[in-house]
Amino acid sequence: MKQKIILDVDTGIDDALGIILAVKSGQFELLGITTVNGNVSLGKATENTCKILDLLQAGKDIPVVPGCSQPLLRTVFFEHRVHGEDGLGGALRGVPVRTQPTGGFGPDFIIDSVLAHPGEVTLVMTGPLTNLALAARKCPELVRHVKEVIFMGGVVREHGNVTPTAEYNMYVDPEAAKAVFHAGFPELTMVGLDVTRKVLLNEEHLRELGDTPIGRYVKQSISDYLQRYFERNGVRACAMHDPLAVGVALDRSLVTTQKLYVDVETRSELCDGQTVCDFQNRLGKEPNVHVCLAVDSEAFFARFVRALKA
After folding, report:
1. What residue numbers bound the domain in which 232 lies?
2. What is the reported pLDDT for 308?
3. Fewest C-beta atoms under 10 Å: which of 52, 225, 230, 243?
4. pLDDT per residue as tens digits for the range 4-29
5. Residue 136 · residue 13 · CB < 8 Å
6. Could you tell me which residues are beta bridge partners of residue 239?
7. Cα–Cα dist 214/237, whole Å
8. Residue 15: which residues within 8 A CB-CB, separation 6 or more?
9. For the stretch 215-225, what's the b/e string if a residue is b when 16 or more beta carbons lie within 10 angstroms of its beta carbon?
10. How far is the C-alpha of 140 from the C-alpha of 185, rounded, in Å?
11. 116: domain CATH number?
């Protein structure tokens, strides 16, 4: 039986690659995709998700359900400088949208799907955790019925990517992240910048993808992203943040994890959104998160390229 998953996305460039990997891998029963405000507005994230499903000719099979249009308490904070105004680096600009979102509300869809399949559904979250925080608030028993939550977000040993200390998804809605961390999910896995920065898509990978519709889409969507990454980091490549979270759902052996106590800062002038990881158990609190600390980048890209060429 295929693994049942729900993707929760704020579809920018790397969310889109994560969706493509999830669909093309053939290993998932994708119950649906919920969208959330983050890299772009909720409306744009939903439209981009539908465009990617159109590209994959999968729109009839996978419901797209819009979720929260803003963080729990804070104002919106988009990331257009990375993903472009349209969120996809201009790759599908002007392409008509055939797939349409379904009715309903993302957090409710998560609740209903998990309760319909208790113990079977993995949630892969690649945007701010607003939808999941609200779902857990509305249905506290949700935490007992989810198989696993895998989220892209945070950083514990390195610098942030939106402030000196904070990763973007945590920074946008730290209150949601804190709620998820403390909700009691028994299997909560953090795929943070500590590992995603080691998974760099480069020109060789693009050549391996070949001159196919998917290969051409990937090359066009990351063109500006590659340049910006080079300007900041001196490497002509781009980090595969969100696809790695999907990769972890596909194959846990891609990463090395340690279960640790993790919390997120919500009341700091300089450090809002920082994920604080208690490596030495100084707080004396029960570990709550499986933290990814190492990754087999070559194995990930072998799986990624193979899936996208299928």
Report:
1. 3-309
2. 97
3. 230
4. 999 999 999 999 999 999 999 999 99
5. no
6. 200
7. 18
8. 9, 39, 45, 48, 49, 126, 127, 242
9. bebbbebbbbb
10. 10
11. 3.90.245.10
List strand residue ranges (DSSP E) for the chain, in order.
3-9, 28-35, 64-66, 121-125, 148-152, 188-191, 200-201, 238-239, 255-264, 275-278, 289-295
| Residue among 117, 205, 241, 290 flagged as catalytic | 241
- Give the pair of three-digit tokens for residue 94: 């002007």
pLDDT in tens, 138-152: 999 999 999 999 999
Number of helices (H), then strands (E), belonging to the chain: the values are 14, 11
A 10 A CB-CB count for 120 gives 17
Q: What angle do CA 131, 258, 20 make, to 5 degrees?
A: 45
Strand-pair partners of 275: 264
Write the CB contacts of 92 (distance below 8 Å, at least 6 apart in sequence). 48, 51, 52, 55, 86, 217, 221
Q: Do the beta carbons of residue 193 and residue 240 sit within 8 Å?
A: no
Query: What is the C-alpha radius of gyration for the chain, rounded to an integer number of angstroms?
Result: 18
Is 241 noted as a catalytic residue in this protein? yes
Span 160-176, average pLDDT:
97
- Please choose, from the candidates 50, 14, 4, the residue with its C-alpha nearest in 3D space to the C-alpha of residue 249: 4
- Residue 49 tokens read as 């998700």
Q: For 119, left (φ over 0), alpha (ψ -120 to 50), or beta?
A: left
For 57, the 3-state DSSP assignment is coil
How many domains, the chain?
1
Q: How many CA atoms lie within 13 A of 25 on its CB side?
A: 25
The DSSP output letter for 101 is: P
